[in-house]
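TICKET: design request
STATUS: open
ATTACHED STRUCTURE:
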């Protein structure tokens, strides 16, 4: 198995040591077991943070507004003034500016700071390095400047940073998972009320294996926002018959299907997928409680099928890996994960077969696409934490 985890070089360790941080935060990425594109429809999701993080080393620098951010992995840095933030620079800086701007909107006072980031979380793999970045910085600044923000405020301001400064109208799942997760558990989150349950995640002898397609098709941001708009169009139409509803969460599949003829076919299938996926999340929670992993796996395949054909956010590389898994008994379930158009599949696989399976999948994937597949296992881990 390729080790995707960046190990800290002695040089990085020395740089971090010499930096003398006042605050250090570990901020994790996430996986989502099931419940895709349901969060912004006020539906259900089942994510958890994983044991791969961005670490933030922070200290005040004595200025009123100069901020200096260093990324050790990418050997790059960014300096800006809190009073003159713009989104003219590289895209990763929009997340940073987004966080400080959203903190300011809450009436909190920041001052100049220096930050070093070190990460073992693969970027652009659909495991939410963005939420790890936003929530980790927000949490770090909260501690450094004693801002008194609650976890929920950190989650929401991070989501708004992404809406307003990155341009993805994301739901709340990734930020929620990055902050609220608990080791050895998955979260069953109701994205309407934000009520959640921590479900014990004991799946031995199975494991979660992520296979990274190493493709990231450029459609991801634009199509994401289009899907959101299509669902909103579906809600507007449904309000003709059900004026009290405000999201797809408020209608049943039967109510939707009753009015199929009035819908544009594309909008109908988007809405139908969302309602079916909500049902799958509830069924998956039941299967997990009953330790029925076969059933859980089937639901994962059902989710992929819906994302591929009804929601149309998959891509040929993700479909290939999902189909490939169906010929291997060791894999109980597989599906694309996250926003789609690239990134990882998540596989529920017997631990004894992991290495052989990766080897076979790598070979087949290379033959088909001439792209190197990368693989790593993920464990449910705690949400973001101050470690110093
Ligand atoms: C991305 C978004 F950020 C999430 O809010 C969620 O909608 C996900 O895509 C799809 O389930 O990760």
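STATUS: resolved
RESOLUTION: sequence designed for all positions
ATTACHED SEQUENCE:
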């Amino acid at each position: 198995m390729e080790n995707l985890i960046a190990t800290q070089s002695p040089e990085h360790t020395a740089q971090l040591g010499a930096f003398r941080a006042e605050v250090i935060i570990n901020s994790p990425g996430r996986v989502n077991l099931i419940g895709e594109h349901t969060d912004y429809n006020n539906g259900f999701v089942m994510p958890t943070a994983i044991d791969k993080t961005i670490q933030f080393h922070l200290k005040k620098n004595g200025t009123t507004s100069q901020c200096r951010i260093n990324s050790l992995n990418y050997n790059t840095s960014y300096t800006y003034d809190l009073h003159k933030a713009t989104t003219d620079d590289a895209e990763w800086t929009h997340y940073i500016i987004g966080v400080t701007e959203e903190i300011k909107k809450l009436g909190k006072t920041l001052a100049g700071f220096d930050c070093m980031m070190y990460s073992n979380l693969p970027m652009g793999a659909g495991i939410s390095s963005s939420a790890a970045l936003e929530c980790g910085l927000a949490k770090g600044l909260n501690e450094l400047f004693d801002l008194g923000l609650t976890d929920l405020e950190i989650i929401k301001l991070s989501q708004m940073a992404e809406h307003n400064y990155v341009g993805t109208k994301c739901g709340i799942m990734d930020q929620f998972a990055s902050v609220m997760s608990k080791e050895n558990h998955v979260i069953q989150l109701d994205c309407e009320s934000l009520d959640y349950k921590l479900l014990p995640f004991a799946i031995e002898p199975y494991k979660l294996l992520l296979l990274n397609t190493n493709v990231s098709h450029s459609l991801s941001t634009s199509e994401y926002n289009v899907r959101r708009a299509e669902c909103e169009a579906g809600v507007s139409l449904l309000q003709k018959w059900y004026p009290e509803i405000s999201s797809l969460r408020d209608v049943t599949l039967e109510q939707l299907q009753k009015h199929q003829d009035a819908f544009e076919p594309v909008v109908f299938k988007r809405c139908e997928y969302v309602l079916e996926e909500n049902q799958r999340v509830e069924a998956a929670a039941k299967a997990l409680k009953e330790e029925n992993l076969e059933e859980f796996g089937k639901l994962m395949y059902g989710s992929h099928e819906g994302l591929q054909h009804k929601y149309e956010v998959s891509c040929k590389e993700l479909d290939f890996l999902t189909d490939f898994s169906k010929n291997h008994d060791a894999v109980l379930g597989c599906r694309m994960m996250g926003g789609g158009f690239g990134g990882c599949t998540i596989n529920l696989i017997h631990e004894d077969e992991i290495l052989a399976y990766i080897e076979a999948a790598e070979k087949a994937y290379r033959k088909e696409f001439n792209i190197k597949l990368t693989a790593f296992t993920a464990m449910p881990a705690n949400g973001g934490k101050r470690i110093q």
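CLOSING REMARK: Residues 36-37, 39-40, 128, 170-171, 173-174, 338-339 surround 2-deoxy-2-fluoro-alpha-D-galactopyranose (CB under 6 Å). The chain has a mean pLDDT of 96.
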